[in-house]
Design goal:
273 residues; alpha/beta; UDP-N-acetylmuramoyl-L-alanine:D-glutamate ligase; six-stranded mixed β-sheet; three-stranded antiparallel β-sheet; 9 helices; 11 strands; 36% helix; binds pyridoxal-5'-phosphate
């Protein structure tokens, strides 16, 4: 079973945040564990309240998740939580899990351990091996702040170097690179801070006919993914895309293939919503 740890905020309306992340991982046949960073009260139109979870409890949730195949990060709320998430993911974690007979057989052990014997496996999870997808959400469409200014600094300096890919939309890209103008400069800023790759989501662009996302990998010309613009507003699309990418990366797909698969699944949800 593909295990994905989703780190983010609880949107009480269920439209976005970790409820959307868990729904996406589940619909793709994966298993989600969560680390909640904040509890919010929201509707599709307005945000009423936001209570951050203490950084220590966020850390405990991440540690409790045990071994996972990928991580998806969304709302981080503030600097203290962002720094704690980065520090915890960066820990050279040695995690253990109990392997059942069935899992051992599946993993290629012909006989498997004796029936009543649970074998403890030790697996070292170093961040370099672990796909981490960061959706740098700063504000909800209803105007609720999802990451404060200190959090944005912490995201750039502590979290980006751990991330395989970061998925800003155009306003997020501009906000995270205030001194750089233009997409290429903004992307360069995020890559210089250590992100493995940047997927710029073009949904806020001016083209009314089609939407184009662009994947920038290091030393590569950007890959373009275009699709007709769908005249429908659906919340949580960024959460969905990043979570679906995490599932694909967890299953060993390359980055471009992960983007392709995630976009296909998002389109399917649009069609059936
Ligand atoms: N609320 C939470 C907790 C979120 O994590 C997000 C996005 O990640 C949002 C709200 C924003 O969703 P939308 O932009 O679809 O309103």
């Amino acid at each position: 079973m593909t295990r994905v740890l989703v780190i983010g905020g609880l949107d009480s309306s269920g439209g976005a945040g970790i409820l959307r992340d868990v729904a996406t991982v589940t619909r793709l046949g994966g298993q989600a564990t969560v680390a909640v960073t904040a509890v919010t009260a929201q509707t599709d139109q307005a945000g009423f309240a936001c209570d951050p979870v203490s950084p220590e409890v966020v850390q405990a949730q991440i540690r409790a998740a045990g071994p996972v195949d990928a991580v998806k990060i969304g709302m981080l709320c503030n600097g203290a939580i962002t720094r704690m998430v980065a520090a915890t993911l960066a820990e050279p974690r040695v995690t253990t899990r109990t392997e059942t007979r069935a899992e051992a057989v599946q993993a290629g052990l012909k006989e498997g351990p004796p029936k009543d014997h649970a074998q403890t496996l030790t697996k070292t999870c170093v961040p370099a091996d672990l796909p981490i997808v960061l959706d740098p959400v700063l504000m909800s469409s209803s105007g609720m702040v999802l990451l404060d200014a200190d959090g944005q600094d912490a995201l750039l300096t502590t979290l980006l170097p751990l991330c395989s890919v970061v998925t800003p939309n155009l306003p997020e890209l501009a906000a995270l690179s205030p001194l750089s103008t233009g997409e290429t400069a903004g992307v360069g800023h995020l890559l210089r801070h250590g992100a493995g790759a940047v997927l710029v989501k073009g949904g806020h662009g001016s083209d009314r006919v089609q939407v184009e996302d662009r994947l920038y990998k290091r030393d590569d010309t950007p890959l373009r993914f275009a699709a007709p613009r769908i005249d429908k507003t659906l919340r949580g699309t960024g959460c969905h895309l990043a979570s679906a990418m995490a599932v694909s990366l967890a299953r060993g797909r390359g980055l471009s293939q992960a983007v392709r698969e995630a976009r296909e699944d998002l389109l399917l949800r649009f069609r059936t919503a």
